Amino acid sequence: MKKFLSMTVLLLIIVLAGCQKDQTTKPKQKTNTNDAKVVKIEKLETMSYEDFYENLKEEELNDLDIIQVADQKITAVTGNYFLVLNENKKNHTYKINKIIDLHPYGMNYYYKEESTMFYPSKDGEKYLIYNECRYNSKDQTINAKDDKELKSIVIDLKKDEVTYRKGNHLENLKKKEGVSENNYPKIAKFSKDMKQYAKKKKYELMTNFYLKSGKDRFWVMKPFYEENILEGRIFRYHEGKIQCVFKFREP
Fold first, then answer.
1. Average pLDDT over residues 66-77
2. What is d(CA 160, CA 158) in angstroms, rounded to the nearest whole number?
3. Domains of the chain, residue spans
4. Per-residue confidence at 93, pLDDT binned at 50, 70, 90?
5. Is the pTM of this model over 0.85?
6. DSSP codes, 182-197
């Protein structure tokens, strides 16, 4: 009996020693060192409408385009200018509240349409912005997902802050900042009455509908053959009525 117990104890010791050996020799999981690190945080710089208006006369920019429709707010972009439009609750029109020149922040939307990516938060207060690609010293194209030195900014409209980040671990960054492509407004087809309205007013339909809460629809139009981007306007469709809710005005 004693011999049996001794053999049993010996076997248990051998098994436990083997388990410990397996645990000590098991390779450690690599930690992700390519997270988007904070480089610096600074106050958000905005520009006056007068300076913006003067610059538009001299620069060749892209058409007005909506980024997001949030509660009582629309964000849009034209060229390298990021626009924040606030709603007037009485007549449901929108007025420019902030103008942000993206070029000093290294975002080159000015040079190539769709070259800069925007990821908004659900409430429209935060925006992750980065260039979709860049060129290295050998004039080779480096896509954002492959760029370990990717530079991005996060604009916080509530705090009036800009956070500079470096690194391309974008999914971690989106979660960290609470932004996502899922927060873009949904897109629907043009309705028959919208097409008829555009034809009657001799407007060119610039974008598809942007839905707000499944009811309101927002889209951009401008007069046919009009090259001046200041003629781009945002329209709203609500309960069968069409209303121009935003247009540029002279200072």
1. 90
2. 6
3. 37-247
4. very high
5. no
6. GGSPPEEPPPHHHHHH
